[in-house]
Automatic annotation (TrEMBL):
Coiled coil feature spans: none
The Transcription regulator PadR N-terminal domain, residue ranges: 24-91
Cross-referenced Pfam families: PadR
Annotated Gene3D superfamilies: Winged helix-like DNA-binding domain superfamily/Winged helix DNA-binding domain (1.10.10.10)
InterPro entries reported in the protein's UniProt record: Tscrpt_reg_PadR_N, WH-like_DNA-bd_sf, WH_DNA-bd_sf
UniProt protein name: Transcriptional regulator, PadR family
Length: 116
């Protein structure tokens, strides 16, 4: 039921790679991981495909802001989500849920407000 149109492609882009932080936090909420494995997990779980380097950039920024913390194991840098990161993830999910609910509510009912 997927419509292949310019607006849908843009929506997938904006809610995908451009907001990769949300998917990274969701994966880290399940357990610690390193960027290369995060890339595979995000692709498998969400269908979001971003370059390898992007995951290193995103994890670096999330770590700098205290949403995740890194540690080294077996010559790899792993990340774990912090409590601050869990709060951000919940806030992001709540925002998307509220937005989806509003879109459905507005499009399914009520009198038109735009009639002139």
């Amino acid at each position: 039921m997927e419509v292949d149109s310019k607006p849908m492609r843009r929506l997938r882009e904006k809610t995908g790679v451009e907001n990769l932080w949300l998917y990274v936090l969701a994966e880290l909420a399940k357990g610690d991981c390193y960027p290369y494995a995060l890339r595979r997990a995000v692709l498998e779980d969400f269908g979001v495909d971003a370059g390898k380097v992007v995951f290193y950039v995103v994890t670096g920024k999330l770590e700098a802001e205290g949403f995740i913390e890194g540690y080294y194991r077996d010559r790899r840098k792993y990340y774990r989500i912090t409590e601050r990161g869990r709060r951000l993830l919940k806030e992001g999910i709540a925002y998307l849920r509220t937005l989806a609910d509003r879109l459905e509510r507005v499009s399914e009912g009520g009198a038109a407000r735009c009639e002139g």
